[in-house]
Amino acid sequence: MLTKFETKSNRVKGLSFHGKRPWILASLHSGVIQLWDYRMGTLIDKFDEHDGPVRGVHFHNSQPLFVSGGDDYKIKVWNYKLHRCLFTLLGHLDYIRTVQFHHENPWIVSASDDQTIRIWNWQSRTCISVLTGHNHYVMCALFHPKEDLVVSASLDQTVRVWDIGALKKKAGSPVDDILRLGQMNTDFFGGVDAVVKYVLEGHDRGVNWASFHPTLPLIVSGADDRQVKIWRMNDAKAWEVDTLRGHLNNVSCVLFHARQEIIVSNSEDKSIRVWDSTKRTVIQSFRREHDRFWILASHPEVNLLAAGHDSGMMVFKLERERPAFSVSGDSLYYVKDRFLRFYDYSTQKDTQVIPFRRPGSSSLNQGPKTLSYSPTENAVLICSDIDGGSYELFIVPKDSFSRGDTVQEAKRGAGGSAFFVARNRFAVLEKSSNQVLVKNLKNEIVKKIAIPVVTDAIFYAGTGNLLCRGEDRLIIFDLQQRIVLGDLQTSLVRYVVWSTDMESIALLSKHSVIIADKKLVHRCTLHETIRVKSGAWDENGVFIYTTLTHIKYCLPNGDSGIIRTLDVPLYITKIFGNTIFCLDRDGKIRPIVIDSTEYIFKLALLRKRHDHVMSMIRNSALCGQAMIAYLQNKGFPEVALHFVKDERTRFNLALESGSIQTAVDSAKEIDEKDHWYRLGVEALRQGNAGIVEYAYQRTKNFERLSFLYLLTGKLDKLSKMMKIAETQNDIMGQFHNALYLGNIQERVKVLENAGHVPLAYITASVHGLHDVAGRLAAELGDSIPSLPEGRSASLLVPPSPILSGGDWPLLRVTKGIFEGGLGNAHEEYEEAADADWGEDLDIVDVENLQNGDISMVLEDGEVHEENDEGGWEYEDLELPPDIDTPNAATNARASIFVAPTTGMPVSQIWVQKSSLAAEHAAAGNFDTAMRLLSRQLGIRNFTPLKTIFTDLHMGSHTYLRAFTSAPVISIAVERGWSESASPNVRGPPALFFNFSQLEEKLKAGYKATTAGKLTEALRHFLGILQTIPLIVVETRREVDEVKELIIIAKEYVLGLQMELKRRELKDIDPVRQQELAAYFTHCNLQVPHLRLALMTAMSVCYKAGNLSTAANFSRRLLETNPTNENQARTARQVLQAAERNMKDTSQLNYDFRNPFVVCGATYVPIYRGQKNVSCPYCGSHFVPPQEGQLCNVCDLAVVGSDASGLLCSPSQVR
Q1: Bridge pairing between strands 339-344 and 331-336
Q2: Which InterPro entries has this protein been placed in (predicted)?
Q3: What is this structure's pTM?
Q4: Which pLDDT score, from 0 to 100, does residue 400 have?
Q5: Dihedral sign for Cα atoms in the order 946, 949, 950, 951
Q6: Band of the pLDDT at 842, cuts 50, 70, 90?
């Protein structure tokens, strides 16, 4: 038995296969009906409306319907597409055992414990016939697959066959059924619509099941007498043919196999038995340990069976259906119907070669499993599972190709696997001794070779070599040298496919394909959700394989895709160009023509065959989101651009590939502010000032436009921008433009008009405009602002531009490999160095316009593209004639040495790739590290971090002295470096500090606190707080640990600071001393340290006469169950003394009943509900007046400042 699918559920009482889809219905004893996809192994749907067990269920053969019958006396018809019950048929008076649709008519037959069988019309939703005659529960009723018959089985020990021919003749419209209801009721106990044809008596106990043979006039039945009986019938009578004995308990279900001459039965003895229907003997028996079987179902089209039992159900096949075949050059040898056949691919001619006898066997799965062919000797080896594994050797005579009828006596032998390893030698695996026997064509042993690993199968691996399959690995073994040539860890490999040049191998498992080279060096693995069936290599080195439902491809780099879907499973034998030759399960050769454009295109990209790629882009109909996504993921956005029609997608791809002109065209079509802004950013990155200007004009982004004109030195346009700002009453814009232009008079005018007369006076005075300054002084009168004495003023005047530039090469955009060679592709936008888009997109004169009456959006026609200009005008350089620039490709061994270009420093790569402050500090870029810390944690005081910064930088570099006259060479040290790593890929810097060091510091801090060395403990905890900002960890879990450590360190720093402050106040301020001791007990400390703090607070308050407060501390101390007996005794004594006189002599700012946090600067309680501010780094709380001050706890961050949060792991960035 080959189990294909199993479920675990409540007891399964009914099963039904769908005719076309890989679905099966299972009705459960719990009342649920499950719909499973047995190929994918998934539960599709559940139907739960029956009250009690559902014993019968059946799919309609063409409509999206199924019917169910249960112990609630109801028959329900469901539509599985609508996921609901359409209607319920009522009429039975007891449990319903089985239900079934008729294969042609709109009928349902049902059997019930009310001793009747009913036939219903599901279209008119009425009962059209009641079959009475059984005098006990009717256990089953089924239609004949072709004739007008019904068979039923009952616990009255009989099987009845009913003729429903008269019912079929009367069947008309639904109206007729309704008219006939009255008549049906009158002849309820003896209607002529359905009459008993035969009553089959022979079982000694109640009969549980009876079913027809699909084609022959046979019936099989199973009963509580543990027997299976076969009955034959003709037009006149029916009689018992034979009895099959062997089951040890009630037979639950029995049926004929649709394709083979076998009967399958199952029983409450926990077994399924397979019987030979001609020899009447048991072929095979399958048994479960604890589960009784209840129901069987067979697939109407495919060779599948299903069985339901106490804890679920299983879908299985009795025999393998894969045909044995072997490809040799342009020919195929395969086995079909006990004949060896020959197929010529070139002529597509199929010939019968020789018949071969199968020995009589008493079990299933004895057909040919593998076939091996030796072309020089014309010999064929056929392996099967007969007698635990055996082979047959045939020498095919040349003349038999014409006749194919000569029966040969084969040479036989035992062995699990056998195939030719040389011209006239074949290898056989002897599992018992773990040896390979090499035999000649006379079937004589030539040599025995022990295999170094325990092997359960061997495969061909070239002349003289074997592939040996172990439990979890595969090895290549050389039979001559007796050495292992290759080894690969893999799951159970079922089939092996070599490429024609024997350089590559595909290993097919049940749900995976592994590609390796001839030495078993792994290349890639593909995982499939449904079973992999076969495969072959095409001439391009692409592996084509089939699953149950698809033909797929696998490229050498592991990329895969679907070529086409399959209706039935096929086994690929050979691939010629676009034609795949397959064998189906019936042994028929089926050539399939496929479209290989997609995988050939991807292969050309992979192998950098750019001429092929361009040719395919021009001539093929490649398209689709999947192809565009693939090209994007593989780093070919410029290629994807040629497949895309959607302007938004084109715009994104153009930006990604740096194709700025295509992006401009798409932005014009889309014409949205966001797209113009993104275009401006990309153009600025490339240094294309003209397009930046155009993008800013389209979005009316005047501020950016003014700044661009300042950078490019276009003062005339700046002055126009100032006039525009004036017309739009944009005072700030006007002032900025005046500032950029260095126009003092305009600045004074703007300030004066805005009402800032003192500022206007100062500006005029400083810049020497004395007449204007005098006029403004008269206006100001007595409130003239005084200028600082003894200061030399620096004038806010920008430097005059030396050269008014257009584009500048910020980013060198190299021309793509596909650009220029593609038809209909836009030419790359290139502009001469002195070109100026702004001149063409001139802003209109605004002298006489009213406010706001100006439009900056220009017509597309105003953009003049100078496509015939010559790039950057390099040819205009007047070079002296004696300079000759060498051509790099003319002669590789030319005498001129071209120095290699300088690579990017590792420290720069670290800075570009990382957002972690520690890695910037390690790279020596302290400025960006400080900016990152300021932004992430609000840190402003970097003095405590100075040594940590320098340690990080020094620790991430090592220094070599090559020789005395050369400078010291600095070498970057990378984190996690290994010899196998690519030299072109730079890892992150090795860091001097790590998390484990902080854990050691934490332990040292705890130890010092316990010992009472509070100053030393404070130094340890403060060190932890000041090191954490420059720590890097790998995982999210470690990030959480770091954040937890900040909280721990913060609590201890605050507590220790308060305790040290309390000790300073000893004998000076007893009230404040008591408050600080009390606050210390509310810090989140370890239990031993909390006990010490409580002990101190209790002692201080008791001595000061605050007995009530001391009692509170003693209670809290006793609640911690102190292990030190002295502490416990003292606490009890204080509690007893306080209870006699529960009074406090002095009032403290301390209310233990009201939750509070302690201010980190003033050490006063901030009770719940009161306003407070916190440190963005350590989280310490402060009273509002402390906002903007440096945090007293961590000594790093500014209280109340904005921060994005701690960033200490690459996983947070990902």
Answers
A1: antiparallel
A2: Beta-prop_COPA/B_2nd, Coatomer_alpha_WD-assoc_reg, Coatomer_asu, Coatomer_asu_C, Coatomer_complex_subunit, Haem_d1_sf, TPR_COPA_B, WD40/YVTN_repeat-like_dom_sf
A3: 0.56
A4: 56
A5: positive
A6: very low
Three-state secondary-structure class, residue 295: strand
In 718-858 the beta strands, taken as DSSP E runs, fall at none
What are 1041's strand-pairing partners?
none
As to burial, measured by CB atoms within 10 angstroms (0-12 exposed, 13-18 middle, 19+ buried), residue 412 is middle
What kind and span of H or E run contains 1158? strand 1156-1158
CA distances from 268 to 142, 217, 309, 344 (A): 22, 28, 9, 52
Residue 943: count of CB within 10 angstroms of its CB = 8
Amino acid letter, residue 337: D
For CA atoms 112, 116, 119, 125, give the dihedral sign: negative
For 788, other C-beta atoms within 10 Å of its C-beta total 6
- Distance, CA of 1050 to CA of 1193 (rounded, Å): 7
Tokens read off for 981? 């790593």
* Cα–Cα distance measured from residue 442 to residue 1152, given in angstroms and rounded to the nearest whole number: 101
Provide the 3-class DSSP secondary structure of residue 158.
strand
| Per-position DSSP letters for 507-525, written without gaps between them | EE-SSEEEEEETT--EEEE
- List, in sequence order, every beta strand (DSSP E) within 519-667: 522-527, 532-537, 543-547, 550-554, 560-565, 571-576, 579-583, 589-593
Percent of the chain exceeding pLDDT 70 equals 86
Helix (H, G, I), strand (E, B) or coil at 396: coil
Residue 294 tokens, joined: 């209840």
Segment (H or E) for 459: strand 457-460
Q: Which two tokens stand for residue 994?
A: 């790590």
pLDDT in tens, 183-242: 554 444 445 678 899 999 999 999 999 999 998 999 999 999 999 999 999 988 899 999
Neighbours of 49 (CB within 10 A): 17
Phi, psi of 206 (to 5 degrees): -60, 140
Q: Is 624 exposed, middle or buried (0-12, 13-18, 19+ CB in 10 A)?
A: exposed
1090 phi and psi, to 5 degrees?
-65, -40
For 215, counting Cβ atoms within 10 Å of its Cβ (0-12 exposed, 13-18 middle, 19+ buried), the class is: exposed
Q: Which tens digit of pLDDT belongs to each residue from 41-71?
A: 899 999 999 999 999 999 999 999 999 999 9
Name residue, tokens 């060498």.
886
What one-character DSSP code corresponds to residue 1029?
G
- Mention every residue, 6+ apart, whose C-beta is less than 8 A from residue 1012: none
Helices (H) and strands (E) in the chain, counts: 30, 61
Structural contact between residues 922 and 993, judged by C-beta atoms closer than 8 angstroms: no
**Stretch among 370-384, 436-450, 898-912 having the lowest mean pLDDT:** 898-912
Q: How far apart are CA 598 and CA 620, in angstroms?
A: 9
DSSP string, 282-297: EEEEEE-SS--EEEEE
Write out the two tokens for 84. Answer: 């609901």
**CA–CA gap between residue 781 and residue 772 (Å, rounded):** 14
CB within 8 A of 1088, min separation 6: which ones? 1010
Cross-strand pairs, 535: 545
How far apart are the C-alpha atoms of 961 and 972, rounded to whole Å?
Answer: 14
pLDDT in tens, 336-381: 877 888 888 888 888 888 887 665 555 565 678 888 888 888 888 8
Helix (H, G, I), strand (E, B) or coil at 262: strand
Return the HEC string of 335-386: EECCEEEEEECCCCEEEEEEECCCCCCCCCCCCEEEEEEECCCCEEEEEECH
- Residue-level pLDDT at 831: 36
Do 371 and 323 touch, CB atoms closer than 8 A?
A: no
Residue 676 φ then ψ, to 5°: -65, -40
Q: 81: helix, coil or strand?
A: coil
- Secondary structure (DSSP) of 670-693: H--HHHHHHHHHHHHHHT-HHHHH
1145-1149: long-range contacts, CB 8 A cutoff, minimum separation 24: 1145/1104, 1145/1105, 1145/1106, 1146/1070, 1146/1071, 1146/1074, 1146/1104, 1146/1105, 1146/1106, 1147/1071, 1148/1071, 1148/1074, 1148/1075, 1148/1078, 1148/1106, 1148/1109, 1149/1075
Cβ atoms of 860 and 836 within 8 Å: the answer is no
